[in-house]
Design goal:
alpha/beta
């Protein structure tokens, strides 16, 4: 690779990680304060003796949240996956509320404060704190001062990918300011009579490096870490193993050897049982809550076009077992004939269909059906599939028989879990992503599953549905 130095060196001087901490810290305290204020207002409206302003006396205790969040490694709040952050925030927030309850019991102040207020505030904070952090990253994540500048070292293909990944998600907190090949660095060292990389890092204030050299041996890595170039306070080693995530991998020492422990939690029966119980409880609650909307949708379908309200299809699920999936009907009764005629008359549409099994401009879809698909309301009857145990709230998208070949060797991975009502594909663009990417996302989900990943995907589903992203 031609050395891509510099990428954005002038901007490296503007990085201020301390400002990232300040922004997230302020957002955390605001979210906690709002959660407590809303909880106190609700309780007062239901007949509490003390007004919400009485809880202002507790505001100095908000420093406890900052201290515990810091102990959980939530500041400066960058270079961490969203799933890992949600897990840490949930645990840290719970710890603080338990601590507050304990302090009130010890100092006998519980008689003045409502336990219901703190319970509601805790539930609200579990959502509000991650939300304010997501908003902060959306607003400030692309500012020049957000995060740390890094040098990237490795072969052309991998270095270019790493740089592109970091540029695509600047809110993660690492900003590539220069990229080099190892051979190019040796030439620069020779021509400058010393460690040119170390000199450049000191000159431009770069304290972190990404070593994207999966083919490098132990001695090569140690030589880099122990050389004059070891001016970096943090070095990130890219192993070149695709499809894994940080929240599913931990480092372990095997004697003097470093190893990566890869968890596959869905292989454990206790996690499968827990996931199933959550699916049943939430799906029943959502069905009961949305029952008036379901009735209105059914009436609109009957008034718009002839045919049944519901549409049933055969899909493949856990262990390759067939089951019937239910949807609100969004197509005309003679949809099969309409599709054949359309594909025969339009080669571009046939190519699109063969590639993705979907059409952006599908002539089969009714007027009401377009609205249902845009809002994903057509998929609400699948909550019954979740309740019956054929599907999960979160998982790979259920597929039909003629899609098995597209999964290839990954099909066995797909059949390890129940297909989901939502999942990585649904929150990653849906019809805007090609089928190969869909297979990658489904495989990634199964391999890296955790309860916190499901929480993250359920949270991501809400704005995706509201915006109608990738729907067709």
């Amino acid at each position: 690779m031609a050395t891509t130095y510099p990428l954005s060196l002038p901007a490296s001087r503007t990085f201020r990680p301390g400002l990232c901490t300040t922004v997230l810290f302020s957002g955390d305290l605001l979210a906690i304060a709002l959660s407590l204020a809303v909880a106190a207002t609700v309780r007062f409206a239901l007949g509490a003796e003390y007004s919400p302003s009485y809880y202002l006396r507790l505001m100095p205790l908000s420093v406890l949240f900052a201290l515990v969040y810091a102990l959980f490694g939530l500041y400066p709040g960058i270079i961490s996956s969203a799933v890992t952050e949600i897990r840490k925030l949930s645990l840290a927030t719970t710890v603080v509320f338990v601590l507050l309850g304990t302090l009130m019991f010890m100092f006998r102040t519980g008689v003045y404060y409502s336990r219901a207020v703190f319970f509601i505030a805790w539930l609200l904070a579990l959502f509000a704190v991650p939300l304010t952090r997501a908003l902060a990253r959306a607003v400030f994540g692309r500012r020049d001062w957000w995060g740390y500048p890094v040098f990237v070292i490795g072969p052309a293909a991998l270095t270019d990918k790493v740089v592109e990944d970091m540029r695509r998600k600047p809110e993660a907190g690492l900003r590539p300011v220069a990229a080099f090949e190892a051979e190019a660095l040796e030439e620069l060292d020779h021509s400058h009579g010393g460690s040119w990389l170390a000199q450049s890092a000191k000159h431009y204030g770069v304290e972190r490096a990404v070593l994207a050299m999966p083919g490098a041996g132990r001695q090569d890595i140690l030589r880099f870490l122990e050389s004059e170039d070891s001016v970096f306070s943090r070095v990130y080693l890219v192993p070149g193993i695709g499809g894994l995530s940080s929240f599913g991998v931990e480092t372990r020492d095997l004697g003097d050897s470093l190893s990566l422990e890869v968890r596959q939690d869905l292989a454990l029966s206790r996690y499968q049982l827990a996931k199933r119980l959550v699916d049943q409880g939430l799906s029943l609650f959502i069905l009961l809550t949305l029952s008036p909307i379901l009735a209105l949708v059914a009436a609109a379908i009957r008034l718009d076009s002839r045919g049944a309200v519901f549409h049933r299809q055969t899909r493949l699920g856990l262990r390759g077992r067939e089951f019937s999936i239910w949807k609100f009907r969004s197509m005309h009764r003679d949809a099969g004939r309409m599709l054949d005629e359309h594909l025969a008359a339009d080669p571009a549409a046939r190519e699109e269909w063969e590639a993705n099994q979907k059409l952006k401009n599908d002539p089969r879809i009714t007027r009401v059906g377009r609205i249902l698909r845009k809002t994903s309301l057509d998929e609400l009857p699948q909550l019954v599939n979740v309740l019956m145990g054929d599907m999960s709230l979160v998982g790979p998208r259920p597929i039909v028989h003629n899609e098995v070949a597209k999964y290839g060797r990954h099909f066995s991975m797909y059949t390890r879990v129940l297909p989901g009502l939502t999942g990585l594909w649904q929150v990653s663009g849906r019809s805007d992503t090609d089928y190969g990417r869909r297979v990658e996302l489904d495989t990634y989900y199964v391999r890296n599953w955790s309860p916190w990943l499901d929480v993250y995907l359920l949270a991501r589903t809400v704005p995706v549905v509201i915006k109608g992203s990738g729907a067709c």
